[in-house]
Structures are given as C-alpha cells and as structure tokens.
C-alpha cells in the first residue's frame, strides 16, 4: 500500500509447496539478463541519504545471483539503523521487514549488534504488535495499517515469535475497513495477509479446528477479491501490486479454481515492463524481484547463505551530464479538502520537462507558501506527504493526502510520477 507507506489442519493437508511459485512460472535462462539488470538498477539507485531499505535486501537475498560485498554492506547498515531507531520512531511493519532482512541474510534478528548496543528485534516486534492491537481496542484502528499488521504476523510466524494464530485469524478477517483504500481494494495488503496466514497454516504446529476453518475462510475471501482485480493482460491491481499478488497466489493453489489465474501470463506481462524502467524505484523493484526469481517471502526461513554464489559483478555507472536545459512545461496544481478544513486552491506551475509531482509541489510552495505549504517524511517509496497547508494526515482518523492526475488516483508516489504538459494535478485530503 504505497501511499499509506501497504495484508489449517497442517502442512500435509495443503498439497502445495509453501513458498514456491506455481509450476511453469519461472524466468527462462534467456530472460535472466533482465533480472540481473533489475538487481543492478536496485543497487545503483539506493540513495545514501535515505535510511537503508530492508525490502531491497530481502529481494536481493531471494535472488539467484548475488554480490556478497553489497549484501553484507546493506546488512551492516540495516543493523546500525535498527539499533539507532529502536528507541525512536520504528513502526511495527518496519521492524517486521528488518527481521525478515536479517533472517534472509542468515543473521539472528534476536541479537542485532551495532554501535556498542545489542537489541532483540523479535522481542521489539512483539511489543509493537501488542501496541497495535491495543490501539485497535481504544481507537478502532491500528497505529499503522493492516498492510503493516500483516507484515507483523508474517515475521512473527517465520521467527516463531509470540503470536496467537486464533487472534491473528480474527485480526486479518474480511473487512472493507482493513483491505480498502479510498474505495479501492488494496492488492498489496491482501497479498501480505495471504502470505501471513499461509505461514500460520504451514508451521507444522497443529491448530484448533476453529482456527483452521477461519484461516481458510480468510484466505479464500482474499484470493477471490484479488482475482477480481485481475486484468485481461494478467496484471493484478496495478503493475506495482502485481509482484505481491504473484507471491500470494502462487502459494494459494488450493484456493484457486482451474484456469482462474495464469501465472505465466502475468510473468510475461511483468517482463515486458522491465526494459521500460517501470520499476526504476528500488522499492518497486524489490516487490517484483522475488516473483521473477520463483520465490516468495515464505522462502526467507529456508535460505542458506553458505551456498550462495558471488556472481553479480557491478561496474561503476557513468554519470550523465545534460547537454542543454530541458524545455519547460506548464501544469495546474490544486490542493483540495472538504473535510475538517475547507481548502480549494489552484495554481499554474511551470517546471522543467521530466519533473516529478514532488517538484510541482515544491515550486507551488515557493510561489505561495500561504496556500501550498506542505510537509513530508522520507519513506522507502520516497517522499510521503504528511500535511498540506497545516492539515495533517492521521492514522487514527484514517486520513491521508491522495495524489491525483486529471481526477484519477495515481499508482506512483510524489517522487516518482513524471508530470506532463497541461496535466491537472491534485492533492486531495481523503479517508481510507
């Protein structure tokens, strides 16, 4: 769920290989250069000014080819970041991803050492998860969202942390409030929730029949909803949510009717996008890479680092210097809210061709800060808008700033979406 940050009786009864993709859905050797190029782009595009991203390391660890030096450097930076943030702002979903990144790197997330300190990330997540549940009791909403709660369940399940399967089955049960954003079904959240509940079903520990039944019902509902989002070309939701969807559906074969989903068709559609730089955002790339590699997040617990090849060499990317100033374009930018505070301000903005939405917001703010001031936080997806003209997004109120172009909600964030001449751009205060 990008704009908000983004969710049985035993193993032998599942008749599936947990973690593996459906048969016939692997990238061919002929197509492997596309995957290796994507890995290299992920590595090159990491911004040293931004906190390290555990999703990138998880994806690289799930890949077939490796650059051990890069992966070890990422692991070291993640450990330092985790120790530093443990006492500060560290959301439950971020802790969950850090745990999975450590486990994928064959490092013990219960004993992370850096800067002369040692922390237990699993214990920290157990407390964060407890705080999320408490906030639901008090306010009716989690501190974060159900995408992050699903990550929490997935990480605690894989690391055998303190987690009640019965409570998790109720927490992740069907509900529009959990799985919809501005009226749209969140494929990302549903996919992580499916992976989390498949994990609970495949731990090898027997579950009470009522819990087994509830988990099955949850997954079936989510799978059906996800399939309803499938396009004729194989894309599920949008191209950016398709990677998560592939992971979830590939481990849900018992819930799929024959012919309900063609994994090879979806894979072909994704491969078509790789040369177009559709996944140039490293976070977007990290969500699609596991499926290209015939893997899912459920494979994290089965990785053995000693067998990894060191076969992904990197070259120094050559900087490109523009030969001339790009032409400028003109767009209309609007800030709108009909909740709490009424706002409806518009401005014409001129920016260089190739500019992103965020640049338009910056120019508008510099031109008239009284009407277009905004704040943001840096996330793994890039800048996330937290307030505009003093009106703050609030998880407990389930409000956020939605990005639109010509009246249509955007699939990309403010730092990625490239604007065009004459476009009508809008940030709208919305609920989810």
UniProtKB/TrEMBL annotation:
Protein residues bound to cyanocob(III)alamin: 144-148, 188, 238, 287, 384-385, 401-403, 410, 432
Ranges annotated as biased composition (Low complexity): 312-327
Keyword Cytoplasm: no
Keyword field: Cobalt, Cobalt transport, Disulfide bond, Ion transport, Secreted, Signal, Transport
Residues spanning the signal sequence: 1-22
Cellular-component GO terms for this entry: extracellular space
Positions of the Transcobalamin-like C-terminal domain: 354-430
Record InterPro entries: Cbl-bd_prot, Cobalamin_Transport, Transcobalamin-like_C
Subcellular location: Secreted
Any Pfam family matching the protein: Cobalamin_bind
Disulphides: 25-263, 157-199
Main subcellular location of this protein, as a coarse class: secreted
GO biological process: cobalamin transport; cobalt ion transport
GO molecular function, one term: cobalamin binding
Region (Disordered): 308-327
Family note: Belongs to the eukaryotic cobalamin transport proteins family.
UniProt name for this protein: Transcobalamin 1
Organism: Pelodiscus sinensis
Native organism taxonomy: Eukaryota, Metazoa, Chordata, Craniata, Vertebrata
């Amino acid at each position: 769920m990008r704009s908000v940050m983004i969710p049985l009786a035993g193993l032998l009864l599942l008749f599936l290989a947990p973690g593996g993709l459906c048969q016939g859905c692997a990238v061919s050797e002929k197509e492997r250069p596309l995957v290796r190029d994507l890995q290299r782009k992920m590595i090159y595009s990491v911004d040293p000014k931004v906190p390290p991203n555990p999703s990138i390391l998880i994806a690289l660890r799930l890949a077939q080819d490796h650059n051990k030096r890069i992966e070890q450097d990422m692991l070291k930076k993640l450990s330092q970041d985790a120790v530093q943030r443990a006492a500060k702002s560290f959301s439950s979903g971020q802790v969950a991803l850090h745990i999975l990144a450590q486990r994928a790197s064959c490092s013990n997330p219960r004993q992370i050492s850096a800067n002369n300190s040692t922390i237990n990330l699993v214990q920290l997540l157990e407390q964060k998860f407890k705080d999320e549940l408490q906030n639901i009791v008090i306010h009716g909403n989690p501190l974060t969202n159900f995408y992050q709660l699903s990550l929490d369940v997935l990480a605690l399940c894989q690391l055998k942390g303190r987690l009640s399967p019965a409570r998790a089955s109720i927490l992740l049960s069907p509900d529009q409030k959990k799985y919809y954003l501005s009226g749209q079904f969140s494929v990302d959240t549903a996919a992580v929730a499916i992976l989390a509940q498949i994990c609970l079903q495949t731990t090898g520990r027997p579950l009470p029949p009522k819990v087994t039944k509830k988990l099955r019902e949850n997954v079936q509902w989510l799978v059906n909803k996800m399939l309803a989002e499938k396009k004729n070309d194989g894309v599920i939701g949008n191209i950016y949510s398709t990677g998560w969807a592939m992971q979830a559906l590939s481990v849900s074969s018992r819930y799929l009717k024959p012919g309900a989903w063609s994994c090879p068709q979806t894979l072909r559609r994704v491969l078509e996008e790789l040369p177009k730089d559709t996944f140039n955002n490293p976070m977007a790339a990290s969500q699609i890479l596991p499926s290209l590699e015939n893997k899912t997040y459920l494979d994290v617990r089965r990785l053995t680092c000693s067998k990894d090849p060191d076969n992904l060499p990197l070259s120094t990317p050559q900087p490109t210097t523009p030969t001339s100033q790009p032409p400028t374009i003109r767009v209309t930018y609007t800030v709108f809210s009909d909740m709490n505070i009424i706002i409806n301000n518009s401005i014409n903005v001129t920016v260089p061709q190739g500019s992103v939405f965020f640049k338009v917001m910056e120019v508008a703010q510099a031109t008239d800060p009284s009407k277009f001031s905004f704040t943001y936080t840096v996330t793994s997806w890039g800048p996330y808008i937290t307030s505009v003209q003093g009106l703050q997004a609030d998880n407990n109120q389930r409000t956020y700033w939605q990005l639109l172009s010509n009246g249509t909600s955007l699939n990309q964030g403010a730092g990625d979406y490239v604007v065009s001449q004459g476009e009508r751009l809008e940030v709208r205060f919305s609920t989810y």
